[in-house]
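Problem: given the chain below (713 residues), write out its structure.
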Amino acid sequence: MCKKWVENCSRSDLKDKTPDHLNKYHRLCARHFEPNLITKTSPFRTVLKDNAIPTIFDNPSLKRSNNETENMDAPEAKKSKADSQSEPAKDNSEATTKEISESKNGDGVDRSPQVIDEETLNKEYLKSLFDVVVMMGTQNIPLHGHSDKEPRSKSFTPSNFQALLEYRINAGDEFLRKKFEGSPVNLEYCSSTQLQQMLEVIENCVREELMAEVKEGRFFSLVVDNLVEIGGESRLPLFIRFVDKTNWLREEFVGFLPFEGDVEAITKRLIGEVTEKCGLDMQYCRGQAYLCSGVSAMKVKAVVARIAELHPLAVLTPCSSCSLNICLANTMTFTGVHLVMSTLKKLDVFFSKSPLLQNQLESAISIYYQGNEEKANVLKGACYSKWTEQHDTFEVAVDLLESLLLCMDSIHDNEDHKWSDEVAHNAFVISEALADFEFVMTLVVLKNTLSFSRAFGKNLQGQTNEVFFASSSLTAVLHSLNEVYENIEVYHEFWFEEAVNLAAALEIPVKVPRLYFRKRPTSGEEIQPEIYYKEQVTLPVVSHAIKELSDLFSENHLKALKSLSLVPAIMGQLKFNTAEETSVDIYKDDLLNPDTFPAELHCWKIKWKHGTKDVVLPSTIYETLQLSDVKFFPNVCALLKVLYNLPVFALTNDKCSTAKQRLTAYLEDTPVHHRNKSMALFYINCAIKHDLDSMVEKYLKMYPDSEPSENRD
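Solution.
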């Protein structure tokens, strides 16, 4: 191709030059090509078809234009220009006239722009690129265009990133313009390799900014959220909890963890993410929580258990953002439980789409509870309070079941053509699930089994004193569940009867799930529904609840919760008769001076028992840490900060708990094929101040040999 270009331009002096030399030192204007050979133009960029050959010249005998084919810095080009001075081309004259007019004012004073060295130009060019990427990330603008998955339409729908760079050049970015107006015509503004390198640099900068305060406070906890699909892979969102320098409990998003491989591989990857990318030390990790559901929850729980083996003080706790009963149900992998939980999620999404759908449900509630207006009002109120995520979700679901089925059937029938086809179809799918006896039976079992942990879980999300006293009530909860397990025949009989009566009211046939017969060959004996549901639902649900509660509230976790007696208000409730020395023994290495802790603790009790009459005692860890004289009790202060990191404590400052909300918004607003793990990190942490100069320096340090690559479209 290069030889053909040289031949058409009648440049015999360039015949021996390599294609790389020609591409680097010589240029040819787009006007020498037929219009049908040009696929894209802009003020500074021209993209040619792969088979483009120059055929248009002002002087047919010469077939070249001096100024447009020569680079003045090349020795060969200088010689060629001297030889051709006798026959200057028209384009050369025009360019010279334009240059003179731009460089001189009316008074003849030289106004030519100052020459910018290559290093400065490259830095400013990179700065412009970083500025655009950061802006796109914080505004959640996908990098790629809508047609990137369809190659045949790529030519007329460029990537969003390339389009914004071109717009920036047109708007007057001189550094971008200077970088590209003298470059090969097919040079991309930013290659995919360079863009990926930039994304990695910005990720590192964001993490460094986030982790600065974590490192200052040393201690932290890990929270793993539900599995999501990012970049064609299943990944786990990872959050870090820590106490900042103002003593607020914060939760920050630090990235997505690839969810592939066995438990050992994921564990190693998670620890690597925390230690290498975030720069934290796992020996200071004091808590773990996960919000996964279904099959993925089993693997994540195994990962968490493995980390607890390596770091015993990284105790597993429930997460304050999820009610305990929902957490327990989400970790169950049984078919019936999965049916119930997935249907509840569908209901939540369904009614959030339009207030008219909510009104339809309220009308159905009024019909079924005509004689009990008080109960109807309670249920209507519950429908506006995220009832599918509460401690009493399963109780409310049982009370609403008849109204829900009536509402779904009414919407699906769509007799007055009020609803769209999509809404009517979704209502049909939900009604089919609600009218399945497996759903009814599992819902009743979940309601009755988790009723024993409902009050306990509610207290865990309550005030600090409620969390403290909840730790003492766990024994009673486990005792009740063990009693159910030991007398499972009796309890199952009552629960099965309740489910049968509810199904009869809804005209739902009592039967064994169809899937059961598909999995097992015909044995000649027909299994009774009551026996099937005892073995497949009641027994597994009860045993799982017992085991999961025991795992969530290990000995170390309970000791940590008992250490909350250091909070003055809880001390007062206990009449200052506490024994923290035993419970805080697991954290003795976290204290500034463990030897003086007993004496310091004694002084701490005396201070609040005798020195603060008619004073309201601080009731939370945050209030206690804000005291001006807490600095005189360094061990107590250090211990309270360690405890505060545990995921079981609620995030009380709205400004410190936006990360999870922004992650949810990103996943809801961004189509799967447009999601990018780096761009998600920028969007979720949009409040971070971005220093473009430091990004450029870091980029040049990480990729010193990186240069814009020449690619043909």
